[in-house]
Amino acid sequence: QQPVQSPQAVILREGEDAVINCSSSKALYSVHWYRQKHGEAPVFLMILLKGGEQKGHEKISASFNEKKQQSSLYLTASQLSYSGTYFCGTGLTTDSWGKLQFGAGTQVVVTP
Amino acid sequence: GAVVSQHPSWVICKSGTSVKIECRSLDFQATTMFWYRQFPKQSLMLMATSNEGSKATYEQGVEKDKFLINHASLTLSTLTVTSAHPEDSSFYICSARAGSRAYNEQFFGPGTRLTVL
């Protein structure tokens, strides 16, 4: 039931772009993206709902393809502050409680 | 953004004792809160869903008698690890859902590091 994230890790130079993918075998209603820095709680980035929408916050954006049950997170012109582990949390159409199942995470390291 | 606090931030206890962790939503009411467990360099594993005024629902494999959850008010949920053992050592994180819809955002607390000796 856990979504699959790829890649497991990525190393970027400041200013480079990266894509993180999240896919599920179940019908999704929502995809939530979080970033977690070492020893800290996950920080909410954005939520995408069924309907194939895209969202963005500064230079981080995401898309949700409900037909493929996939979401992608785009890091554009990466900054040092983007380093951390990114998790996607998926909400199923069959769940009314809003429970999220989290992927294994993608570790992002941005170097100067 | 919405703020969720957890207390304590870390706790060290002896095997066999019980530990209570509090999760509070500071600037919004949370009908539903969630409790997760995270091992080092691993993902967040949902333990239970806590609803104000009703019994918590536990995920498969989580012992409800060991991990007692009480959602006493719209801003407070507690997790009590009873008769803790070293294998219970972990990072426990709560989240609170802002809004009543299942797809509303969840905001996480800072987590509690539990070490059982």
Verbal overview:
Chain A has 112 residues and is mainly β. Chain A contains no helices and 11 strands. In chain A, strand 9 and strand 10 form a beta hairpin. Chain A is globular and about 45 Å long. The termini of chain A are far apart. The model of chain A has no long low-confidence stretch (mean pLDDT 90). Chain B contains no helices and 11 strands. In chain B, a hairpin with an 8-residue loop joins strand 9 and strand 10. Chain B starts with a strand and ends with a strand. Chain B is mostly beta strands. In chain B, the strands form 2 sheets. In chain B, strands 2, 4, 5, 6, 9, 10 and 11 form a 7-stranded mixed beta sheet that branches.
Give the SSE layout.
The complex is a heterodimer of chains A (112) and B (117).
Chain A: E1 4-6, E2 9-13, E3 18-23, E4 28-36, E5 43-49, E6 54-57, E7 60-65, E8 70-75, E9 84-92, E10 101-102, E11 106-111
Parallel strand pairs in A: 2-11
Antiparallel strand pairs in A: 1-3, 3-8, 4-5, 4-9, 6-7, 7-8, 9-10, 9-11
Chain B: E1 4-7, E2 10-13, E3 19-25, E4 32-38, E5 44-51, E6 57-58, E7 67-73, E8 76-81, E9 90-97, E10 106-108, E11 112-116
Parallel strand pairs in B: 2-11
Antiparallel strand pairs in B: 1-3, 3-8, 4-5, 4-9, 5-6, 7-8, 9-10, 9-11
